[in-house]
Amino acid sequence: MKQAGIAYRVVHLHPNSHAGYYPGAAPIELKVIYDDQGKILGAQAIGTEGADKRIDMISAVMRLNGSVEDLQLIEVAYAPPYASAKDPVNYAGYLAADQRQGLVKTIEWHEVDALIGKQAYFLDVRESFELAAGKISGSHHIPRGELRGRIEELPKDQPIYVYCSVGLRGYNAARILALNGFDVYNLDGGLKTYEQANYETGHMKVQPRTADQGESFSTMVQHGTQAAKIVVDACGLQCPGPILKVKQSMEKLNEGEVLQVQASDFGFHKDIVAWADATGNQLLKNDIVGNKVVATLMKGAKDSHDDAQQTLQTASNNGGATTMVVFDGDLDKAIATFIIATGAAAMGKPVTLFFTFWGLNIIKRQAHAKISKSGTDKLFGMMLPKNADHLPLSRMNMAGMGPKMIKKVMADKNVDSLAVMIERAKQLGVKMVACTMSMELMGVAREEIIDGVEFGGVASYLGEAAKSNVNLFI
């Protein structure tokens, strides 16, 4: 199009192939090109699932001389295992329409380096903990949630180029700044697009911290005291299943022994790097081979020149625990709670779950001795779910059909049931505390609570929260 002299604009976005709360959602990298009149000129999509369907939809609109505004209105079949309520194609239409209506000005990834060379003012609006994953060189940082209160820190005598991970928070920040008189541009597709465009293709190479540059794998294995290669197959397991498999297998190994793990969850490619750093084990290889992630680790055996700061246990002693207030009693939120809890426990972090109000339904026994109740206690007992098997969904409950559907999908995708997650959390040492005040208000007796749960009040929770650096309310 450049050679033909055709003016065009572009949007980049990074949605999932289907609803994120259903297992198996895969990322799609989607790019749509259009002209100044909104006519669609082309599109590209990359992903392991659903990319072809999105291109089919866009090509059909193109065949009918449709515009990006038509993408906003396109209707597609919807069910959580196969799509989202708003399809990625709809989102592409929204982004392009916002640009055409003048709601936001954008820059593209290939313009960033030239702007850096001119010392342009880049503003990162992500949260502080996200900065460790990378940033644009020389950029300033104000989280989007703090932007209104810190707006006086920004210069008005030059353009401001805002960015976030994928573009959404950057868009919100750009709108705030534009309405306050700033000349502002949002990085289309966010930092993810910029990093992907500058990514060097090929397998990721991870050098072991105990091996010299260029040393062969077999030589590295010989550094172990009793090198015995063990292979673990974690394919089909969803997060945090592969990490749990690694943790459980590593506990059985001696210092210097080698573990190889295969996983079909591509998020494991990044997770295993963080896990190895946090636990003090050595990541020897971390490759994507076909449709699998294959990682090789050596247990411990650090040399004196190992530059790791400390293990996660040391961090835990200095406030690195995780606490969660489990207030809601919906099935999907309960599943999310125990996925996060077991994942944190697998990283070696102390985890405390404080169940209060509706969250108490999650930790009720399957069966218990008959308890005599009266008044409101009896009424609550009749109206509330009997146990974790009877929890509703927060969305699409459909008179009880929704929970049955998601349980079937979980079984099909080899995702543990909630009951199994709870038992696994116990095995990993997750501390569960039931709020006694909430139990009294809602007529829940101690005999109704599963084994292994402690009883305490708000002081118990606050005491654990004071030791943690991650505190969530679910």
UniProtKB/TrEMBL annotation:
Domain Rhodanese residue range list: 116-203
Record-listed E.C. numbers: 1.8.1.14
Gene3D superfamilies on file: DsrEFH-like, FAD/NAD(P)-binding domain, Rhodanese-like domain, TusA-like domain
InterPro entries: DsrE2-like, DsrEFH-like, FAD/NAD-bd_sf, FAD/NAD-linked_Rdtase_dimer_sf, Pyr_nucl-diS_OxRdtase_dimer, Rhodanese-like_dom, Rhodanese-like_dom_sf, TusA-like
Highest taxon of the lineage: Bacteria
Pfam families the UniProt entry points to: DrsE_2, Pyr_redox_dim, Rhodanese, TusA
UniProt keyword Zinc-finger, yes or no: no
EC primary class: oxidoreductase
GO function term, MF aspect, one: CoA-disulfide reductase (NADPH) activity
Keywords in alphabetical order: Oxidoreductase
PANTHER family reported in the protein's UniProt record: CONSERVED WITHIN P. AEROPHILUM, PEROXIREDOXIN FAMILY PROTEIN
Name the record gives this protein: CoA-disulfide reductase
Native source species: Sporolactobacillus inulinus
